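About this split. The held-out portion is used to measure sequence recovery: a designer receives only the structure tokens and must propose an amino acid at every position. Recovery is the fraction of positions where the proposal matches the reference. Here is one held-out target exactly as it appears in the evaluation file.
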């Protein structure tokens, strides 16, 4: 059966106190809405509709870039009204639909799949979790696992408030039936709004039972404030670390490592304490990332060693067995197999061959104030300490560059290039200097 998702993302998010829309705040390097879209897609939804506010241009642009369609809630008339607005896209859709909120970054595809399966057998399904929190409506079950009613906590009596089964805000139904029920919602409440939670009662009037699907409370977390955003990040990091460890990744202190949603760590990669992964990083088996390193947009090949205190920026590939040491920054560069840059260097927009040695203090001068230029260092080349390579420039295979040089012209293969000034000595100068200084201090 075809599946669709309706993601409600028209809320104002005022508690975030931010000019950025709530669902566009990041969790593990991906907007909250991106996590929700990914969950819907992972549950087999072929059509995803994101409902936005009229001024939600940023949200609509992002949703469309992720392959989702969008609908606009022209007025803030409640969650039921927001879901009803998706009818403009799904009016002829024949299949199942799941409705959920766009501020739930931890929702899992498996939870949505379970709601679809329950809907198929019972007619409708909602997702619930167990919690003592007063923030959620209570799910009252008459005959397990079927719903009797949903009661908002503020409207619940004492007996209902003692119920720990809470509404997660996820609902699955037949699409045509759902939009028919949504069209019949009434706004006879103090807020004069159309509530999504009233739909099961309308379904019940038609003899449709609503199954309650249980999920973990942490997976159902909504983000409405900066504090909740930080808590969602903590939970997501726990999930990502656990998955990495289960996949055979070694971590000395996993609670200190921060991963991105798309970090790829192969089995037998070793990650030291306090390593931060930005987006689009792939670390191959046998590679080691040492403490306090920061990586983004980079690939580290087998048996390479990075860090401690190294930074890899986007476009970087570190070859097999290469060493990138402390306080070395690499950007948009390919570092050859077995090459070593062990201390205090900057390699930007460079191509470094296999087995090269990059001395401490070496930099590629890649930017002239307008454009970036490439540096090519050949296989087996030796770059002495404190060398400045002024791009565009090439150092040939096996060439040596003397320490302290400024290289502005091509260096042929197997040649030696040295540009330092000629050394001069003044015999006896040091002893005369010390004698003069000591005499001056004695007079004082």
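Reference sequence for scoring:
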């Amino acid at each position: 059966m075809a599946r669709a998702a309706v993601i409600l993302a028209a809320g104002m998010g005022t508690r975030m106190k931010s000019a950025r829309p709530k669902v566009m705040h990041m969790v593990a390097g991906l907007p909250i809405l991106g996590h929700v879209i990914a969950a819907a897609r992972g549950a087999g939804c072929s059509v995803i509709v994101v409902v936005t506010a009229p001024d939600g241009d940023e949200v609509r642009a992002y949703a469309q870039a992720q392959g989702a369609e969008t609908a606009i809630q022209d007025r803030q008339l409640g969650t039921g009204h927001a879901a009803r607005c998706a009818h403009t896209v799904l009016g002829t859709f024949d299949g199942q639909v799941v409705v959920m909120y766009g501020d739930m970054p931890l929702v899992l595809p498996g939870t949505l799949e379970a709601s679809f399966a329950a809907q198929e057998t019972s007619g409708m399904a909602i997702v619930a979790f167990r919690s003592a929190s007063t923030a959620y409506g209570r799910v009252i079950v008459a005959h397990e696992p079927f719903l009797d009613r949903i009661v908002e906590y503020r409207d619940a009596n004492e007996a209902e408030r003692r119920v720990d089964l809470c509404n997660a805000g996820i609902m699955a139904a037949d699409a045509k039936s759902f939009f028919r029920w949504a069209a019949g919602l009434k706004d006879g409440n103090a807020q004069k709004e159309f509530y999504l939670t009233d739909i099961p009662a309308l379904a019940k009037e038609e003899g449709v039972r609503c199954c309650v699907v249980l999920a973990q409370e942490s997976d159902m977390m909504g983000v409405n404030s900066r504090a909740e955003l930080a808590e969602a990040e903590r939970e997501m990091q726990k999930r990502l670390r656990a998955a990495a460890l289960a996949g055979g990744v070694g971590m000395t202190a996993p609670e200190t490592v921060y991963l991105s949603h798309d970090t790829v760590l192969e089995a037998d990669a070793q990650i030291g304490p306090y390593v931060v992964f930005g987006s689009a990083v792939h670390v191959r088996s046998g590679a080691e990332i040492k403490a306090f390193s920061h990586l983004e947009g980079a690939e580290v090949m087998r048996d390479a060693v990075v860090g401690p205190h190294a930074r890899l920026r986007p476009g970087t590939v570190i070859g097999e067995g290469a060493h990138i040491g402390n306080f070395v920054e690499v950007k948009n560069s390919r570092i050859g197999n077995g090459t070593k840059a062990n201390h205090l260097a900057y390699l930007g927009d460079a191509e470094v061959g296999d087995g090269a040695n990059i001395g401490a203090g070496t930099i590629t001068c890649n930017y002239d104030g307008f454009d970036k230029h490439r540096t090519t260092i050949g296989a087996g080349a030796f770059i002495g300490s404190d060398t400045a390579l002024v791009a565009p420039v090439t150092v040939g295979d096996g060439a040596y560059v003397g320490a302290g040089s400024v290289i502005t012209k091509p260096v042929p293969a197997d040649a030696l290039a040295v540009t330092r000034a000629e050394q001069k000595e003044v015999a006896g100068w040091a002893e005369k200097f010390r004698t003069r200084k000591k005499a001056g201090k004695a007079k004082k």
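Annotator remark: The chain has ten helices and 37 strands.
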